[in-house]
């Protein structure tokens, strides 16, 4: 495809006007001021539009789309115990497939090109992602508080089988990660065993870290004053490329450990606010040079995948946390949403509008009242834009969403099947 006469946010998130951008196959082949020679297929008129990297959702539980709005105004443990866990006990592969596919449709409409997911029924998740054309880092979450033998656990067997069968599937769009659910849901032997397997297999790790104050303080009580970051580091969890979700209550040396180990922090602003878990100190995370990415968490604890809303929320609450309106600049917020997330997923050639990178791109309609006047386009994208401004989403050079229409997903069927599966589960509760 050839985008012509379009405003862009380049690899440095600097604005370029009246540019030509050409994609060839799954790559960005040309960015320049003059129209390139050759046939690039469809031409897209960029007048009144902005072209930039798509968004990388660094922490989610996509099948939980089935539980959107199911548990509201509850504390986290009550929410989990009375709503989420009973519902999840009745899940089927069919329900997970449709819930994931619906989530991929919503993601594409909000400019999310790739997602990092923790869940189970990973075969069904992978099938939905492959069918959608999106990208995903899928991990089979491991939970073992009772300390069962690691290799005999069904979840571990499922994880290893999925890694063997699915890692690199869908032309590399699907990457299989591992996932220790959290310190508080596993014993030390399990954490060490999973860390060893992950390192030997050369995989990425996903883990929940210090999401709530209770989790954080109880870990210190269990492990002689060690924080979750210190405990997980000692177990080797961070000895491979790791994304640590939440990190709301990290403290002291935690920041230095995360920096030294090259861990990405995936902050989840809206979900953490909704569950009153707290506000991550994203300003300090950035100051320490830690890679920052953004996650939505599940739509059961967020209710939408509106990533532009997530970006704005990150910027605003970071200022409140620091008591300083100068922290978290618009460029830093956008970088977390794009390149920061791609780095967390190990997608080295993604997350930036750059020649040679994968063509994971989105177009925003800027010819709308709330995007004018334009003193600074980056400021407008972070503070003024709406998720509905996204009018095109491309993954690996293929347009998957354009002007409200989906190329790969029958949304009417996805909605119908998701509603049907949800009603079937509720009838059993």
Automatic annotation (TrEMBL):
A GO term for molecular function: hydrolase activity, acting on carbon-nitrogen (but not peptide) bonds
The keyword Hydrolase appears for this protein: yes
One Pfam family matching this protein: Amidohydro_1
Keywords: Hydrolase
UniProt domain Amidohydrolase-related: residue ranges: 51-399
Name of the protein described by the UniProt record: 5-methylthioadenosine/S-adenosylhomocysteine deaminase
Taxon lineage: Bacteria, Bacillati, Bacillota, Clostridia, Peptostreptococcales
């Amino acid at each position: 495809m050839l985008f012509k006469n379009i405003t862009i946010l380049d690899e440095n998130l600097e604005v370029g006007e009246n540019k030509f951008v050409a994609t060839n196959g799954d790559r960005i082949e040309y960015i320049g001021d003059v129209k390139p020679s050759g046939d690039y297929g469809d031409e897209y008129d960029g007048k009144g539009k902005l072209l930039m990297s798509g968004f990388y959702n660094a922490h989610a539980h996509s099948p939980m789309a089935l539980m959107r709005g199911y548990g509201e105004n509850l504390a986290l443990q009550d929410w989990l115990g009375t709503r989420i866990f009973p519902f999840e006990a009745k899940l089927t592969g069919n329900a997970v497939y449709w819930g994931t596919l619906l989530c991929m449709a919503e993601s594409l409409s909000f400019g999310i090109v790739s997602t990092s997911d923790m869940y189970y029924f990973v075969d069904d998740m992978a099938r939905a992602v492959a069918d959608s054309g999106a990208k995903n880092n899928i991990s089979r979450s491991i939970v073992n508080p009772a300390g069962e033998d690691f290799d005999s656990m069904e979840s571990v067997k499922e994880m290893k089988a999925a890694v063997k069968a699915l890692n690199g599937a869908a032309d590399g769009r699907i990457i299989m990660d591992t996932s220790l659910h959290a310190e508080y849901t596993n014993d030390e032997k399990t954490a060490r065993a999973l860390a060893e397997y992950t390192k030997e297999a050369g995989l990425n790790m996903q883990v929940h870290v210090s999401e709530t104050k209770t989790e954080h303080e109880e870990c210190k009580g269990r492990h002689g004053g060690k924080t979750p970051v210190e405990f997980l580091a000692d177990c080797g969890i961070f000895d491979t490329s790791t994304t640590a979700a939440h990190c709301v209550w990290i403290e002291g040396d935690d920041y230095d450990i995360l920096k030294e180990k090259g861990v990405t922090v995936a902050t989840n602003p809206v979900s953490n606010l909704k569950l009153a878990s707290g506000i991550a100190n994203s300003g300090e995370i950035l100051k320490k040079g830690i890679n920052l990415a953004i996650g939505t968490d599940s739509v059961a604890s967020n209710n939408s995948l509106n990533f532009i809303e997530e970006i704005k929320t990150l910027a605003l609450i970071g200022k409140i946390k620091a008591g300083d309106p100068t922290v978290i600049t618009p460029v830093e917020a956008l970088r977390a949403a794009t390149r920061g997330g791609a780095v967390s997923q190990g997608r080295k050639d993604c997350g930036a509008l750059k020649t040679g990178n994968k063509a994971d791109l989105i177009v925003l309609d800027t010819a709308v009242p709330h995007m004018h006047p334009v003193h600074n386009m980056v400021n407008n994208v972070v503070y003024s834009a709406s998720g509905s401004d996204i009018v095109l989403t491309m993954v690996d050079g293929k347009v998957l969403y354009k002007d409200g229409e989906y190329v790969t997903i029958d949304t009417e069927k996805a909605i119908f099947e998701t509603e049907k599966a949800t009603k079937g589960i509720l009838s059993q509760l």
